[in-house]
Input
Amino acid sequence: MEAQLKIAKVGQYELNYLEVGEGPPVVLIHGLAGDYSAWTNQIQLFKNRYKVIAFDNRGAGKSTQIDEPISTQDLAKDTLGLMDHLGIKSAHIVGRSMGGAVAQHMALIAPERVKSLVLCASFAILDPLGRRVLLNMREALEWRMNWADHARHSIQNFVSADFFNHKQEQVKKIEALIGGETRLPACYIRQNEACQNQDTSGQLDLITQPTLIMAGRNDPICSLAATDILTKGIPNSKTILFDNASHFFLMEQPDKFNLALAEWLDTQPN
Output
């Protein structure tokens, strides 16, 4: 995949992206942690049926990194700019965590550009627990300024207790992935703040696209309370809960997630 990575100039920023496959466009937006590679499994799974676009958000991966104030709405405009660059009029938008918040703004800013939404472990507004968890992770990075230390202090927030206790090898791989970040800590801190400031809760009724909401029952970041706000607020939505799974239910229960996503995309009008 590395050979196919390209750079798009979007405003004053450069976005590192991958475009593979043919068919209806599907745009994948990663969360606060990581980069486009968070979608590696889904890219491989869907590239034979869809035009799949995955990219590094501004401030992550190999995209432009600047210590500056940022909002989830700013990131939504970046994503729409990337679609303009690629000549994509409309697409199915799949976002995980912060990426789902970005996706909501895309649907509000340019509804004609969004065919359907998939919101994975995401939120319109964080509940008090989610705010505290994000604040604690941010402070761990600010205090230590070391990604490996940040990962060690954060990993238990991303997977269920059962997964943590019984899948230690996989936990180590996830921790190493988070701890291997190369981005500027300042960019993570700014985007962490953007998540804290995210609030589309009063506008969800304006999102009329078909929307699939997926969440882990044991997620302390995007809790069932946060999920319920999305479910009740978005009129044309369907919710799937993952039992005994947390914020990274995509990695904890990949088969269930991939099947649910495939069934959703395959039944959406293009």
Q: What stands out?
A: Residues 218 and 244 are 6 Å apart (CA to CA). Residues 128-144 form the longest helix (17 residues). The chain has a mean pLDDT of 97.
